Structures are given as structure tokens and as C-alpha cells.
Here is the input.
Amino acid sequence: MNISLVNVHKTLRQKTTKTKIFEAANAEFAADRVTGILAPPRSGKTTLVGLTTGKLRPDSGRVKRLSLVSFPVAAGGVFNGALTGRENLAFLCRVFGFDPVPIIRFILEFTEIGKAIDKPFKNLNRDERTRLLFTACYAIPFDTYLVDESIIGGRGSFRTQCEDLVRERMRTSGFIIVSSSPTLIRKYCEDIFAIDNYQIRRMNDVDEAEALIGSDRLRDGDGALDLVSDGG
Here is the structure.
């Protein structure tokens, strides 16, 4: 199983401006590997994530998904603020074809947010929101998990638990980690790609990817987020 981009062209259009992101881009990501895609800010990271999930469609070319791909880790946009945490989770599970009962039970035990799961999502405090968002994706047994910069979150013991959960998922599932951080890519990834000049290029290692892009264009970090914003 794999995820592949075949001759993908993509331009983003906002009012009167057009920004070319990919031009005849080709890449194949193995669904059972931890893949890192190093890219500078504003080079198309989030666009690539959108293409991979199917949220965005290429202008031309194809994106083929032969495995079940997650929504981006900690993506608040997949939660409806007016619904409770439990209602949001049940909806997501059904969309992807899973029984919500064991998944919600796991999330309650892992996050320890208790009755807060039955509050409207918009009324959760930042710690509760962070715990729920980071656990929700990993609780669903996807074939491939998709990371846009932030791979773990929270504070103290929860962050340690989150790191352990990521390592556990990496033993049974693939990951695609899209980031501007060489440190994050180097820590987790087996297969390395770089976004450069509207292309997605296979690299031998992180050092080669960093040299291609230029370290001055990158933004290093560990992929950890203390608390998500109130807006998710």
C-alpha cells in the first residue's frame, strides 16, 4: 500500500493573486514507513497535507491513496465547536468506519479529561482541547498518520504519554511528517523527501535535504506544542 502523487500541478488562488505550489510533482510514500518531508515555510507543506487527505484536489494530475489516511494530527478544523467532544469523536469514527465506543473509551482513559468530554468543544479550556485533539487522531487505527509540524502536544506527564503513543503507533502504521524542522525529521523518519522548486524530491538523508533547501530557510523545532490556541 502506498500514497502517490502523479504529475500533480497545484496553484492556490486568492482573489486576484495566484501562487504556484507544485508543477508536475511526483512522489510515492510507503504506507508502512515513517516518511519525513522537509520544506521551508510557505513552500506548500499544508497544501501537500490537504492533497494527501483529499481536502484539496490537484489542478491536474492524480493523488492516489491505497491506504486509510488520517486527518492531520491535532487539526482543530475537523471538530465542530458546537458539538461536544464525544459527539465530534463519534462522528469522526463513523466517517472512517470504526465503532466509536472503544475509541472514545480509550480517549477518556488516556486524556483523563472526564466530564469535559461532554462539553461543547468550543467551551473546553486549552489543556482539555490540547489533550483531546492530540489523542483523537492517534486513537483511530489509521494505516497512515499525517503530521503537519506538530506531532505531540500537552505538558508534563501527558506529553510523555503522547510521545509513547506515537512510538507505539509507528510500530504498526506509517507516518507522513511534513515539517520545516530538520530536528523533527531526523528524530523520527526513515524515508526523507524535500519540497523544492515546486517539486517533491527523494533525498538520501536529512543532511542532503537541508543542504538542498538551505538551513537559513528552515525553522527548527521538536514538533511539540504545549497548548493549542482557543480557536483550535
Observations:
- The chain has one domain: 2-225.
- Residues 18 and 51 are 18 Å apart (CA to CA).
